[in-house]
Design brief:
The chain has two helices and no strands. It has 148 residues and is an all-alpha fold. The mean pLDDT is 90.
């Protein structure tokens, strides 16, 4: 009877082991399914990594362009500062409206004096011409020969 008992127990143990084996097989199938899902997710992450690499490359190009723009703006800022200094120098040396007005007044005064002197000269020339005519007329009447 012992043998029969042992066989019955062995059979129960075998049945229990088979049930556990079936459960483990079901669990293995679930893990296989989960592994396939993880592989799918890994593939998606690989695709996303590729996209990020592409985006990184584009951002590197943009960084280069921005660096170039920064350098250009720095040079432009220096040029503008130089030009502002030059403009300041020009403003210091530039004549004001008052200065120009004084020059114009001086030119007008000089032109007026020049005109007055020219008119006086013309009057003197006419006077000398009249005197010359009178002297020649007197010389003719006095019968004097004028040589000059």
């Amino acid at each position: 009877m012992m043998c029969a008992m042992e066989t019955k127990e062995l059979k129960e143990i075998k049945d229990a082991l088979q049930r556990h084996d079936l459960r483990f097989e079901a669990i293995d199938k679930r893990f296989d399914s989960i592994d396939r899902r993880f592989e799918s997710v890994d593939d998606r992450f690989s695709t996303i990594d590729g996209r990020f690499s592409t985006i990184d490359g584009r951002l590197d190009v943009i960084d280069g362009r921005l660096f170039s723009l920064e350098e250009g703006f720095s040079r432009l800022t220096g040029t503008v500062a130089d030009m502002q200094g030059e403009i300041g120098d020009i403003k210091e040396n530039m004549a004001t409206k008052t200065d120009i007005q004084r020059i114009l007044d001086a030119v007008d005064a000089h032109a007026k004096r020049s005109e007055e002197q020219w008119q006086e000269h013309r009057m003197l020339v006419r006077q000398v011409d009249r005197h010359d005519k009178w002297i020649h007329a007197v010389a003719r009447k006095a019968q004097v020969d004028l040589d000059y």
